[in-house]
Amino acid sequence: MHQLRRELYARYLEALTNTDSELQLLAIRQQAPVDEADVRAAWRSHSLLSLNYEITLVAPTPVADAADTAYRSLRAMRNVIATTEVTIGNPGTPENNAPGAAEWQRVHRTYIDALAALRSAMRANIGNSQGT
After folding, report:
1. Which of 51, 66, 83, 121 has the fewest CB atoms nearer than 10 Å to its CB?
2. End-to-end CA distance of the chain
3. Using an 8 Å Cβ cutoff, are 52 and 12 in contact?
């Protein structure tokens, strides 16, 4: 079970990260809001929902809850990119004052925090289940 979880956790983190990257790339390349068909294609390309369901089946509650929170945070980011004029940028950069920058930073920070909490829960679970 330990190896199954480790592999599933790695696949889920990879899918979250790749989806985040694709969504950001769309928002950078296209005028926001990004075309919904493009956003949906990027969203579906990494099987996030099915991996989230799989985690719910095999992971303990703290990991499953953190995985769902990360999924929902990334989905909220997806929705903002698809419906709002956002400017992708980092705090302290010139684009920080552009229209939509604060909205982008809010949804992206929420996702980044959820991802950190998920990684922490996964590490705790794998660290506590050595040999099982």
Report:
1. 83
2. 6
3. yes
Higher pLDDT, 87 or 4: 4
The answer to whether 95 and 101 have CB atoms below 8 angstroms apart is yes
- What contacts 89, CB < 8 A, 6 or more positions away? 95, 96, 98, 101, 104, 105
Contacts 24+ apart (CB under 8 A), 62-67: 62/121, 62/124, 62/125, 63/9, 63/118, 63/121, 63/122, 63/125, 65/121, 66/114, 66/117, 66/118, 66/120, 66/121, 66/122, 67/12, 67/118
pLDDT value, residue 103: 80
Coil, helix or strand for 85? coil
- Per the document, the length of the chain is 132
Q: Which residues contact 17 (CB under 8 A, 6 or more apart)?
A: 115
Residue 111 tokens read as 């996702």
Q: How many CB atoms are closer than 10 A to CB 54?
A: 16
